C-alpha cells in the first residue's frame, strides 16, 4: 500500500534547491515552474519551461512570515482579475529576487507545504472531491508519469510507465539493396527535422479523418517518391505515384 505522505515528499524533494522560474495561471488553476527555463519539444511543437511544473486546481494559499497574501480566490472571477493576480504572484516570487525552494512536506490527505526562501511558503489543501484532480507535479517534456493527486489521494496514473512516443522512418540501404524501417523517439526525430525534407500531411486534411487503405497506399507512394529522389535504384523501379490513390 502506498504511503501518501512519503511518496509525495520523495517526489517533490526534487524541487529543493531550485529557484521558482515562472508563475502563471490557466483559468483558476495556479501554474508554477521551477529550475532554469529550457527548450523542449511536445507533440511536435517547440516549447519552453522549467525543469519541473506544479499545477494546482484545489485550494491553496501563499504565505509570507505566517501571513496569507494570496489564495485560490485571487484567480477566480474575471479574466482581468486572474491575470492581474498571476502577474502579482510572478512579481513577488521572481521579479523581486530569486525565491528558492528550501523544504517540502506533505500529509496523508495529499496536502503539501512548500517552503521557500525570503519567508514564503505555499500550502496546498486538496478539496478531496472524488474523481476531481487536486494538483499535479511533473517534468515538462519528459516521458514520465505525472504525480497526480485526485480526491485527496494519489491517482493510479502516477505509477504508470509511459512509453516514449516513437515514429518510423523508411530508408533504403544501398549496400544491402533493401528498404529499412527504423523506430526513432519523437524527441530524437525533432532535431533531424531541422535539416531534412519534410512532407507534412495533416490529419484534418484527410477526408473523413479515417486512415483507409487508400491513405496507406498514398503514404507509401509518397515515401517511395521521396526515396527515388536520392536513390537511382529505387527511381528506375518506381511505378506508382501518390495521385494513383485518390481520396474520397
Give a brief description:
The protein contains 5 helices and 15 strands. With 248 residues, the chain is of the alpha+beta class. The termini are far apart.
Describe this entry's structure for a reader.
By secondary structure, this protein is an alpha+beta fold. It folds into two domains: 4-159, no CATH class; 166-244, no CATH class. It has helices at 4-12, 79-95, 186-193, 213-228, 232-235; strands at 20-26, 29-34, 38-42, 45-49, 52-56, 59-64, 67-71, 101-106, 112-116, 120-125, 133-138, 147-150, 153-154, 166-173, 178-185. It is elongated.
Distance between the termini: 54 Å
Number of strands: 15
Spatial strand arrangement across the major sheet: 1-2-5-11-12-13
Q: Output mean pLDDT.
A: 88
Please name the defining characteristics of this protein.
248 residues; alpha+beta; 2 domains; 6-stranded antiparallel beta sheet; 15 strands; 34% strand
Amino acid at each position: 500500500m502506498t504511503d501518501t505522505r512519503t511518496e509525495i515528499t520523495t517526489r517533490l524533494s526534487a524541487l529543493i534547491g531550485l529557484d521558482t522560474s515562472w508563475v502563471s495561471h490557466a483559468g483558476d488553476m495556479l501554474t508554477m515552474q521551477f529550475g532554469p527555463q529550457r527548450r523542449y519539444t511536445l507533440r511536435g511543437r517547440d516549447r519552453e519551461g522549467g525543469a519541473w511544473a506544479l499545477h494546482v486546481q484545489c485550494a491553496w494559499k501563499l504565505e509570507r512570515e505566517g501571513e496569507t497574501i494570496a489564495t485560490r480566490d485571487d484567480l477566480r472571477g474575471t479574466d482581468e482579475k486572474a491575470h492581474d493576480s498571476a502577474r502579482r504572484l510572478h512579481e513577488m516570487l521572481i521579479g523581486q529576487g530569486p525565491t528558492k525552494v528550501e523544504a517540502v512536506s506533505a500529509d496523508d490527505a495529499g496536502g503539501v507545504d512548500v517552503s521557500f526562501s525570503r519567508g514564503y511558503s505555499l500550502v496546498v489543501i486538496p478539496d478531496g472531491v472524488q474523481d476531481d484532480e487536486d494538483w499535479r507535479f511533473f517534468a515538462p517534456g519528459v516521458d514520465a508519469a505525472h504525480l497526480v493527486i485526485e480526491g485527496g489521494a494519489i491517482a493510479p496514473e502516477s505509477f504508470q510507465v509511459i512509453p516514449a512516443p516513437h515514429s518510423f522512418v523508411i530508408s533504403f540501404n544501398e549496400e544491402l539493396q533493401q528498404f529499412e524501417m527504423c523506430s526513432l523517439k519523437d524527441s530524437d526525430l525533432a532535431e533531424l527535422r531541422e535539416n531534412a525534407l519534410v512532407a507534412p500531411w495533416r490529419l484534418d486534411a484527410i477526408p473523413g479523418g479515417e486512415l483507409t487503405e487508400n491513405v496507406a497506399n498514398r503514404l507509401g507512394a509518397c515515401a517511395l517518391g521521396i526515396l527515388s529522389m536520392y536513390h537511382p535504384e529505387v527511381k528506375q523501379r518506381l511505378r506508382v505515384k501518390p495521385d494513383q490513390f485518390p481520396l474520397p
